[in-house]
């Protein structure tokens, strides 16, 4: 079997999908896009596919090594995302050729179902693409919490902060705590709560706030500080008993090496950015040696979710899976591109998938209809009161 062609689909608001074709008529799908950089992602895939065209798609590791190491300059968000999507598609082809789900090729399932969590937005979400963040409306957050609970989800995640100063006011600290308290009072103690801070905290601000949140028994606090401060994560982890999760903006085992020693509880690599199924599987194994759980990041489309689930089923130290399908834009739009009936949570869990490859059927007609030549979606840009840049 040989790779004979490929096709890329640029889909709003922030997705790129890849189809790889073979001379046996077997096709594989992946998500190689870096959010808000679709044109750059597409160019990177075009270059990386030179390593795969005309070759046996089942030699996945050989292709991975060639793509990752075949250039003098290696790694980074763009190149790793391109490799990630290609890698997913090659695993999809291999599973379909052999007639088994990808998790079977990873050693078989270690669990029968995958626990997932749902997003309920949070501070600034109503004005995500505006210049200035809007103060959180707790009533809106609680409405979305009720919607997710009505759908049967047992864990929800939200962001309780607005744009933050390096060291913010006591009022803002109290606002953060009050929002978390309101959600905990709404859901009770049987529902898990995770908080995602998008790197908005400084190291100083995180250590100031997190002890105040311990009484709410959170599942984890996600990405409290920016990834460039990985070497200092021990300061954050030691400041609180609440589990710390991070890693969606790290792209290889090498970048996880020091982080796993810092005391974090949960690693969050993204299968569409961290080297695909091949590298994410290795990150999970490395994390297990440090007693660190896996909660893969997945805030894009259904193909990335399907790839994540294949790893989750075969990963002993898996904790919970992020997903956005059915949670509003962009999830509702992207869900129409595949038959994702097997990916719908039931009582907060996704049951073991049985179809070969990644386990999904792509609606190519819908994919082509959704694809656009130019995608002008851009990352939000926020500013502080003094006009300086603010993390969103």
UniProtKB/TrEMBL annotation:
Mandelate racemase/muconate lactonizing enzyme C-terminal domain location: 138-243
Organism expressing this protein natively: freshwater metagenome
Pfam family name, one: MR_MLE_N
Tagged with keyword Lyase: yes
Keywords: Lyase
PROSITE patterns referenced in this protein's UniProt entry, alphabetically: MR_MLE_1
Swiss-Prot/TrEMBL GO biological process terms: amino acid catabolic process
Gene3D superfamilies (alphabetical): Enolase-like C-terminal domain, Enolase-like, N-terminal domain
Name used for this protein in its record: Unannotated protein
Keyword Phosphoprotein assigned: no
A GO MF term: lyase activity
């Amino acid at each position: 079997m040989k790779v004979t062609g490929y096709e890329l689909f640029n889909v709003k608001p922030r997705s790129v999908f890849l189809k790889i074709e073979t001379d046996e008529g077997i096709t594989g799908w992946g998500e190689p896009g870096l959010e808000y950089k679709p044109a750059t992602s597409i160019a990177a895939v075009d270059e990386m596919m030179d390593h795969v065209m005309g070759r046996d798609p089942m030699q996945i590791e050989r292709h991975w090594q060639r793509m990752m190491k075949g250039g003098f300059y290696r790694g980074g968000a763009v190149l790793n995302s391109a490799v990630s999507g290609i890698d997913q598609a090659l695993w999809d082809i291999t599973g379909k050729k052999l007639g088994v789900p990808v998790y079977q090729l990873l050693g078989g399932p270690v669990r029968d179902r995958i626990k997932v969590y749902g997003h309920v937005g949070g501070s600034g979400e109503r004005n995500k693409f505006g210049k200035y963040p809007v103060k959180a409306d707790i009533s809106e957050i609680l409405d979305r919490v009720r919607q997710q609970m009505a759908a049967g989800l047992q864990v929800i995640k939200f962001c309780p902060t607005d744009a933050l100063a390096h060291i913010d006011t006591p009022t803002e600290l109290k606002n953060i705590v009050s929002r978390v308290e309101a959600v905990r009072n709404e859901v009770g103690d049987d529902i898990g709560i995770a908080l995602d801070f998008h790197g908005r905290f400084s190291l100083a601000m995180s250590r100031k706030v997190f002890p105040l949140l311990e009484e709410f028994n959170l599942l984890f606090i996600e990405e409290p500080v920016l990834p460039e401060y990985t070497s200092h994560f021990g300061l954050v982890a030691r400041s609180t008993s609440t589990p710390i999760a991070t890693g969606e903006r790290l792209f290889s085992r090498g970048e996880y090496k020091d982080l796993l020693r810092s005391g974090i509880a949960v690693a969050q690599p993204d299968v569409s950015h961290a080297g695909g199924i091949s590298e994410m599987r290795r990150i999970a194994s490395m994390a297990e040696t440090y007693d660190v759980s896996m909660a893969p990041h997945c805030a894009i489309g259904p193909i990335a979710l399907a790839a994540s689930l294949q790893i989750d089923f075969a990963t002993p130290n898996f904790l919970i899976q992020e997903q956005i399908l059915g949670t509003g834009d962009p999830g509702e739009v992207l869900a129409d591109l595949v038959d994702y009936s097997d990916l719908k949570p039931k009582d907060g869990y996704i049951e073991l998938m049985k179809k070969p490859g990644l386990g999904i059927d792509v609606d190519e007609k819908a994919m082509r209809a959704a694809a656009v030549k130019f995608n002008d979606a851009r990352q939000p840009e926020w500013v502080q009161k003094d006009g300086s840049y603010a993390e969103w």
